[in-house]
Amino acid sequence: MIGSIASEIGQIDYSEESVANIVGISTMECYGVVGMASKNAKDGLWETIRGGSLSKGVKIRSKNNELLIELYIMVEYGTKISVIANNIIQKVKYNVENYVGLKVSTITVNVQGVRV
């Protein structure tokens, strides 16, 4: 469980996987993002992830009831990386705070490669 919201009616608990899927989908919707990157622990290679397992390029931690999100992405050649990263940060923060209701304190975007 990465976070929870309680009200007078009950409590909602969020798993890390569910929030990571929202983050992954929000990231892939941004212009210039080719895919999420996942580090393979065996041989240290970075591989591009598309489609179903977008959460593998996302690390989420909870600190003081706020989320710290770390993203690993691949970008398209010829795009300005700082603009892409800024768009991702704004979109992910907006979507997580509005859809889930949890506060996001930090988003770190790690660009692992550029695809032609």
From TrEMBL:
<dbReference type="InterPro" id="IPR005531">
    <property type="entry name" value="Asp23"/>
</dbReference>
<protein>
    <submittedName>
        <fullName>Alkaline shock family protein YloU</fullName>
    </submittedName>
</protein>
<dbReference type="Pfam" id="PF03780">
    <property type="entry name" value="Asp23"/>
</dbReference>
<comment type="similarity">
    <text>Belongs to the asp23 family.</text>
</comment>
